[in-house]
Design a protein that fits this description.
By secondary structure, the chain is an alpha/beta fold. It is about 30% helix and about 15% strand. The protein contains 5 helices and 5 strands. The protein has a 3-stranded parallel beta sheet with strand order 1-2-3, covered by helices on one side. Helix 3 links the parallel strand 2 and strand 3. The mean pLDDT is about 90.
């Protein structure tokens, strides 16, 4: 059973932000509740792949993509994040000299949340 299903007593996540793309969409569908919205916001695993049509239809999933904003919109986004207290989930941090390790860790797909580089 996916983690989100266990965490919600079998119901599934109310909303899913899908950042992986084709290789992780099926996992997002499995983690979602019935008729749950899934918002694809990334394509880390590529731009093409199989679409699990039957799973989408069986769970009545709603897919609605989100695009990132322009550079000019970033100050307003930062102000909104800071004013609400939203904080990202940070899985692990690496120093700049460990950048190759950071990319290997990302490629392993064992992370949950952000992988960060510290510059100091």
């Amino acid at each position: 059973m996916p983690f989100a299903k266990r965490l919600t007593g079998g119901r599934g996540a109310d909303e899913v932000a899908e950042v992986g793309g084709p290789a992780t969409l099926e996992k997002s569908i499995a983690a979602s509740r019935m008729a749950g919205p899934i918002t694809p916001i990334g394509v880390l695993t590529g731009f093409a792949g199989d679409v699990p049509t039957a799973a989408i239809m069986f769970k009545n999933i709603r897919l609605s993509c989100a695009m990132v904003g322009a550079r000019e919109q970033q100050p307003a986004m930062i102000e909104g994040v800071e004013s609400t207290g939203i904080r990202p989930v940070i899985d692990r941090s690496f120093t700049l000299s460990q950048i190759a390790d950071a990319f290997r860790y990302q490629k392993s797909q064992r992370h949950y949340g952000k992988i960060c580089l510290t510059l100091c």
